[in-house]
Fold this sequence. Notes:
Elements: H1 3-14, H2 32-42, H3 64-68, H4 75-83, H5 96-108
Helix pairs in contact: 2-5, 4-5
Amino acid sequence: MSAKIATLVFALTTLPLAGYAVGAPLPGQPDPQSGKALAEKLCTNCHLIGSAQQESAVADVPSFHEIANSQSQSTGTIIAHIMLPKHPMPQIPLTKNEIADLAAYIMSLRDRP
Length: 113
């Protein structure tokens, strides 16, 4: 491959990323930090939202850490539970991006093996 072609390929594959901070989510990707801000605003009445292993804010309501570490947990199941909540969780009007951000934050609390 010639040097000009290699340079062009490199430019085309990296230029869309120019201007984004290292570690920042790419456009269209869920943002756990935004999810954390949403959780702090909307979920703290019932759930403990941090990674600390503590009891829930309300009896029988799991902490986000517990939710993240439930067996077979996935981002998709979290999204489903937010979109179609079961009693006593209220229906909270959120955009698709907000739901994805919130699910990404919850999954970020999952213990690493």
